[in-house]
Amino acid sequence: MPKFYETIFPNAVQYDLNDQELMEIESLLTQCILENKGVLSRQLDSYDRQYVAVINQQKEKEVWVNCECKRKYDTDSYKYRLVDVDDGGDCYFRVKVNLDKHKFHSFSVNGEA
User: Fold this and answer.
1) Distance from C-alpha of 91 to C-alpha of 46, rounded to nearest angstrom
2) In which domain of life is the source organism classified (predicted)?
């Protein structure tokens, strides 16, 4: 989805994550949830996650993480298309992770309808 990459990460190059990087992302997501427990009431394991990984303009590995509450029924649709939902509260949040700086940023949670 090149147009999507350009919207989130202008002038970036797609990147494939390895197992160690996935573990670091999980650690940073856990930290993000702990630091934002005033707006997030759920644990990390209650979310399905989508990752968009790139090498950014500064030559750093950066990942956009899109989180969606797990559903009682599994449609697997999140595996084939990016989830884009209005409202829904803390069932939907997104954050960027910089693997070279070992930090997260650009955290946002959907509003309530």
Assistant:
1) 9
2) Bacteria
- Cβ contact 29:102 at 8 Å: no
Residue among 59, 56, 62 at smallest CA distance from 17:
62
pLDDT digit string (tens) for 73-91? 556 666 666 656 655 567 7
Where the chain has pLDDT below 70, the residues are 1-6, 72-89, 112-113
Please tell me the predicted confidence (pLDDT) of residue 92: 82
Q: What angle do CA 103, 79, 67 make, to 5 degrees?
A: 35
Dist. CA 99–CA 90, nearest whole Å: 24
Note whether 63 and 52 are within 8 A (CB).
yes
Taking Cα atoms as reference points, which of 82, 109, 100, 89 lies closest to residue 2? 82
Note whether 90 and 42 are within 8 A (CB).
Answer: yes
What CATH number did the domain enclosing 67 receive? Answer: 3.10.450
Q: How many residues does the chain have?
A: 113
Domains identified in the chain, total number: 1
